[in-house]
Amino acid sequence: MSSVTFETQRTALADVVAIPVTPFAEDGTVDQGAHRALLRRLLDGGITTLTPNGNTGEFYALTPEERRLVTELTMDEVGDRAVVLVGVGHDIPTAVASAEHARAAGAQMVMVHQPVHPYVSQGGWVDYHRAIAEAVPELGVVPYIRNAQISGARLAELADDCPNVIGVKYAVPDAARFAAFARDAGLDRFVWVAGLAEPYAPSYFSAGATGFTSGLVNVAPAVSLNMIEALRSGDFPAAMKVWEQIRRFEELRAANGSADNVTVVKEALASLGLCRRDVRAPSRLLPEDERAEVASIAAGWSI
């Protein structure tokens, strides 16, 4: 294991980490043609890191067969144009099988969704991730942390056992907590990805993040790239100009406990003629009055 440095994967995480949507056809199945076209649009737009089966891809609403299909479609379409980290999760055997499938398909990394369980102990969190990481030692592993109870010391403990745990998608909406967590875990030991996308990227970058996830990037890749360029150069005023540009769109996504997080992105894509607006329960379509506002924002970005 010591010979594997994961440098390519580390570099890929320190970037805009796109979370592609999963478009659905009229009959409710995955729209493979639209999916490929959206991936090509991201790649042609300059995006080089992709997470199929992420939350913007409606991970929890997909069947196991659909998750495998999304992984295979992504790997086939991307080829060597981007680094792919496949979202995996659910129970340990399912997550391990998904990680092994991702490896077989040619992915370089997996992102481990937060354990969905009402009772998560810190030690059990380590055990869960260890079981997955040890099954695919050749892949970079990126825990997705949404649980404010997990401590930085536990992440360090996990990485002591599993050197392929190389980055973290940190999605607790608290910049001070993130700063402390990263330093407790080892600021330089991991690549820190701001897991709450563009709205939190400036504050998280100021505390040590070097990448951020994005669902908005499906709609306007150039907007997300403008933000990361500003952040990389330390130009926070320029980054905040982008922040102001995307604020309303992201507020619509975040409203009511992020009820319309994916819905707003798909509505914007539908307004541009790129895929159907359909989402699966427990998400729901936007009311008519909000559709026009989303379309107006998306049209403004595409000029």
From TrEMBL:
InterPro entries: Aldolase_TIM, DapA-like. It comes from the Bacteria. GO terms for molecular function: 4-hydroxy-tetrahydrodipicolinate synthase activity; 5-dehydro-4-deoxyglucarate dehydratase activity; N-acetylneuraminate lyase activity. Keywords: Lyase. Belongs to the DapA family. Its EC number is 4.1.3.3, 4.2.1.41, 4.3.3.7. This is Dihydrodipicolinate synthase family protein. Gene3D superfamilies: Aldolase class I.
